[in-house]
């Protein structure tokens, strides 16, 4: 009782003190109290209530790593992590990249196991480290693999392709599940069109007309897939060419995508307006040695083509490229009349962005490179060898 009396008298005293204050002070205290109430309410709403009810918090953690293998040759090798699920897509252009791939992947894969190996098509710049050779192990021998998904068709007869088939079949005989992308699309046997990778993250095999029809271009046989994470979608089409992209658009309902791995290393024969106008990508990763004359000595048609840069610029300037080389004019002319370029004698590819790491966690997207995180348009290589599209000025 005594305590209560004391409290009551304290309250009365405070009330008396308050009544003595000037009107200005009374308004100040009232405003302060209102601000505290609103502040506390806002904190509860945004920091506690909203966090609990945010739909994205149910989605697993996701990252894609576009490897830079450090040699002068363009090739794909992409590591994807969705929650605890590990996926390796393609295996570089040279068999001796295997230790570089293994060292990088093993930072994330601690149990020696890949849940999925996806090999998009049979060209050397995608299968080399899966094939291996007499001195370099095959990735098939370095990891336990649950499920191998690869291309249903190939016209290849190369040694590296034959070795790939041998290694893949041996792995399947040893217990890995092996399906073609067509098996997956058709849900044949135990193959599935859609796999759940983690909470709220799915891998969906798309229909490519050239899974079951012949093409004069091996690239068109590429496995095409999309990864869905809530409202974010990530599209991978291997080296699919113009005809393949047209069929892809015709046969699949494609969403707008957060990330697109530019088709065929930024070749002008892929990433067509037909596809881009539907997927309207926010971020683009290009895996290539920009400016290497490996495939052409026509400056504007080295990867990534000027033409594809111009088409991409309509949708985004968030474009990132793994590595690059310098070019110089030889003073000679190509058969098409354009100047003939070369890479300087003894030149080595250098990192542009380096390994490109795209992450989406709790709906927050980050895109960074291990060398730097600058956009292609701001790189010295781009400023020297490409013309800036009007949208990027
Ligand atoms: Zn390729």
Quick recap of the structure?
The protein is 31% helix and 24% strand. The chain has 393 residues and is α/β, with parallel strands linked by helices.
Description:
The protein has helices at residues 2-20, 23-53, 98-105, 124-131, 139-142, 159-173, 181-185, 242-251, 273-279, 306-312, 380-385, and strands at 62-66, 78-82, 85-89, 113-119, 144-150, 177-180, 194-198, 201-205, 225-229, 232-236, 259-261, 283-290, 319-324, 328-333, 339-342, 350-351, 356-361, 364-369. The chain folds into two domains: 2-53, no CATH class; 59-392, Ribonuclease Z/Hydroxyacylglutathione hydrolase-like (Metallo-beta-lactamase, Chain A, 4-Layer Sandwich), CATH 3.60.15. It starts with a helix and ends in an 8-residue tail after the last helix. It contains eleven helices and 18 strands. Strand 2 (78-82) and strand 3 form a beta hairpin. With 393 residues, the chain is of the alpha/beta class. Mean pLDDT is 92; it is low at 1-6 and 49-57. Bound molecules: zinc ion. Residues 76, 123, 125-126, 239, 265 line the site of zinc ion (ZN).
* Dominant shape: globular
Number-wise, the strands total 18
What is the share of helical residues? 25-40%
Percent of residues in β-strands = 15-25%
